[in-house]
Amino acid sequence: MKSILIKALPILFITSVSLTAVAVDVENSRNGYSLHENQTYASQTGYQKLLSGGDLTSWWTQNISSTMRTAIIPNRLSANTFKSNSSDWTKELGEVTANTHLGEMTLTDAINDPRAAVKAMIILHKGEVVLETYPGLRPTDSHFWASVAKPTAALLIEQLIDEGKLHDSDTVSTHLPDFAGTALGNTKVIELLDMVPGTDTHDSSKTRMDPDSIATRYYRAEFGEAYKNGKVETVRDILKSAGRTSPAGQVFEYSSGITQMLVFIAEAVTGQSWSDAFDDRVWSHVRADSALQIHLAPDGMAAAHGIVSSRLRDLARYGLLYTPYWSLVADKQVVSDAALARIAKPHYSHDTFMKGDGKRFTSYLGEAPLGNSRQWDAVYADGGMFKGGLFGQGLYVSPNEGIVIAYFSTVPSSPLHRFVRPLAKKLYQN
Questions:
Q1: Maximum CA pair distance of the chain?
Q2: Which end of the chain has fewer CB atoms surrounding its CB within 10 Å, N or C?
């Protein structure tokens, strides 16, 4: 199957970072934008301004295909109709409380607080909708997933492992010969999946402020911004230049560039573009409401680490693929039981997790997990799985209970992250 390609001009990328909490009137994004606003925001779009989480960010998260090349993966099956049990649950879930960086508050308070800039939220329990709200979106609007998309890159790798076409222990150069002799060429697939490569590819506030860091360079390349001497690099070439900082497997260091290595491997093994492979293997089997948008770098690289857009319900459908209720939203099981078992048991220790970015994820979730696993930020002993994204996006899945919590926001730090565990536990009781 072939996805449809839409071309647009790349957006400006600025390297310095300012993560300032900004209140956003999300009603503006729900009501739509004028011609003047669209033109103004498009001309002002820049990386530093996007990270502020203000009105420009709010516009961009719903209009990425206006600023970047985009592969459209159509919805090929008729959408399923979710049963709704929200009348019994909405008030009860709205009263769930959490201690957030904005203070102790109920879920209803968090959704209504302009500092949280919540665009939309949905909760499924055993495949039924128990809460759904759209303060800043129309239900038919698509929105930026951010790093919530990272498990999509891992899913293709999981399928190829299931099929015996690659192994966790394979080195990168086994499948990408052009990486032979590089630091990442000697890195194992499992070390990519769990983000413990021991290379200078770390994506953090510090590396984003360094104009010469690998992270800054691969974001520049992704958005078509020249690095030096007017040259626009490619993410692939930048990652070839990565150096080793420590033995692999010792520290969890978050990196979108490492996720992109999984994209390159999936393309090499399948012989397809990543978008076409994801279409064939996953999205064509999902009973989605609308198309999935995969936004692309200037060289056509699918930015599956995070620059992906869809409707909220389709993100929830994706989450449900990781549960026994997958048949409600798909015509075949695309996440195998074996893959789920691999995700549920972190390969590396809790100590490896906490030596690095595990401290940050534990802090904003409010409850320490077992660790990160295979592109999921956190997995818990009761089976809960969480993946977060910049600007407060989130996807929480409890496979055994068929719980899916999905949300879109527009602030760098969302209070909703602190609610996923209390909400899941509330639903466990029923």
A1: 61
A2: C
Mean pLDDT, range 374-395, rounded to an integer: 96
pLDDT over 50 (residue 161): yes
Q: Which of 234, 268, 302 is the last residue of a domain?
A: 268
What total of structural domains would you count in the chain?
3
Same domain for 155 and 240?
yes
Q: How confident is the model at residue 22 (pLDDT cuts 50, 70, 90)?
A: low
CATH number of the domain residue 161 falls in: 1.20.58.710
Query: What are 129-134's contacts with CB under 8 Å, separation 24+?
Result: 129/82, 129/83, 129/84, 129/85, 129/86, 130/85, 130/86, 130/88, 130/89, 130/90, 130/93, 130/427, 131/86, 131/89, 131/90, 131/93, 131/94, 132/84, 132/86, 134/30, 134/312
Asked whether residue 172 falls in the same domain as residue 218, the answer is yes
pLDDT tens across 294-352, in order?
999 999 999 999 999 999 999 999 999 999 999 999 999 999 999 999 999 999 999 99
Question: Which of 58, 77, 96 is at the close of a domain?
Answer: 77
Q: Tell me which amino acid residue 294 is.
A: I
Domain boundaries, position 32: 4-77
